Amino acid sequence: RTKALLYIVDIAGSERDPLEDLRVLVNELGSYGDGDLLERRAIVMANKIDLVEKQRVPEIVGSLAELSDSLGIQRLDDVHAVSAGVSG
């Protein structure tokens, strides 16, 4: 019944690689059931851009777009860069 997927990748983690995180998500979804979730259309979001140097954001977003294409993610649109943080 799922019509689309939303991949949200933390790009600010100092101990994590956002590209590897996206690979892991795709591998886990591919292992679920008969793997047909990977055939769903998707949106990829780069989260926590406020915690990354501004000049690095386009590079990271571009890398996520290239990787999502190579992994076969059926993106509905470009990779979106967001800051979903909430304060005080």
List keywords for this structure.
4 strands; 88 residues; 32% helix; single chain; alpha/beta
Describe the structure.
The N and C termini lie far apart (37 Å). With 88 residues, this protein is an alpha/beta fold. 32% of the residues lie in helices and 20% in strands. Helix 1 links the parallel strand 1 and strand 2. The model has no long low-confidence stretch (mean pLDDT 91). The chain is built from two helices and four strands.
Structural class of the helices, strands and pairings? Answer: alpha/beta
Give the overall silhouette: elongated
Average pLDDT level? 91
Determine the number of helices (DSSP H or I, runs of at least 4 residues).
2
> How many angstroms separate the termini?
37 Å
- Low-pLDDT runs of 5+ residues are none
- Beta content comes to 15-25%
**Secondary-structure element string:** EHEHEE
Main sheet: strands, sense, barrel: 4 strands, parallel
C-alpha-based Rg, rounded: 13 Å
Helical proportion, percent range: 25-40%
